[in-house]
Amino acid sequence: MSATSIIKESLKYPNFHRKNWGIMGAIFLILAILNLISYYVSGASNVVSVVSFLFDIFILGFGMSLIASTIQGVDDVPEFSIVDNFVDGIKGMILYFVYSIIPFILTIIVAVLTGLLSNLFKVAIVLNNSTAFHAAASATTSDEVFNQLSIAFSAVPVNVQAALINSLLITICIAFVLYLIVLLFANMGLARMVETGSLKAGLSIGAIFKKISSIGWGTYISWFILTILVTILLGIISYLISFIPILGMLLKALIITSFGFFFNYRTIGLIYNEG
């Protein structure tokens, strides 16, 4: 299949499995409710963070099982297996963590070279000597906090502010490109780990490079760009829906986030099969 055909098929996939789409929507809804609880209930954030992280591991593991079924040529959504999905999710987390190490280190180096860290240090010194900054810590309302912080930051020299903004933008742009490059390989690494059952195989850059070459770099990069565009579109829709009180959160979790889940893992499995 062409990159366009893969994207079209992946977009249709959730509609063919509405029951599973609804189940995943319910899971994402639970996560959304947990986030609300952590925001409004004092002292609940630590517990909610742990529970949410465990959910994230399980969701990743189930997504990996969806990749596996796609690689095997099965169109049906696999059954939930709490233990297997959780174990697979841990492996997936480890794989993505390893892949993120190099761009993280390179981003730190870029931050040093652009002067971002030194500029942050200069700003920190000014803020530490500002009474308004310390007053913001004891403020009782959000408006008061904002006003005190505005006063504190106004004391930072204009040239330092400009240097900080420039170095920050350059670092963010380079970091974004680095993570996109890594994601090119990480997606195939995840699929390869699913196929072989080996974390080592998922981290074999040479084997992954050969896999992408067998797919065709033109096809693979086209697919990658289209996938990013779909993800951005879903993000925009989610953002707009979130403005609807309460109902927006429900629709976002039940429909958009769960749709993106099925699209993402289905499309990874399909492009992997092209090699």
Explain what you see.
With 275 residues, the chain is mainly alpha-helical. It has one domain. It is globular.
Can you lay out the helices and strands and say which pair or pack?
Layout: H1 3-16, H2 18-40, H3 45-71, H4 82-113, H5 116-128, H6 131-137, H7 142-154, H8 158-196, H9 199-202, H10 205-215, H11 217-241, H12 247-273
Helix pairs in contact: 1-11, 1-12, 2-3, 2-12, 3-4, 3-8, 3-12, 4-8, 5-8, 6-7, 8-10, 11-12
In short:
This protein is an all-alpha fold and 275 residues long. It has helices at residues 3-16, 18-40, 45-71, 82-113, 116-128, 131-137, 142-154, 158-196, 199-202, 205-215, 217-241, 247-273. α2 runs antiparallel to α3 (45-71) and α6 packs antiparallel against α7.
Key features?
275 residues, mainly alpha, globular
* Largest sheet descriptor: none
Secondary-structure class: mainly alpha
Overall tally of domains: 1
Counting DSSP H or I runs of 4 or more residues, the number of helices is 12
- Estimate the global geometry from the Cα principal axes: globular
Q: Which stretches of 5+ consecutive residues score pLDDT under 50?
A: none
Number of separate strands = 0
Order of helices and strands: HHHHHHHHHHHH
Radius of gyration: 22 Å
Q: Give the DSSP E fraction (strand runs of 2 or more residues).
A: under 5%
Fraction of residues in H or I helices: over 70%
Mean pLDDT: 89
Distance between the termini: 11 Å
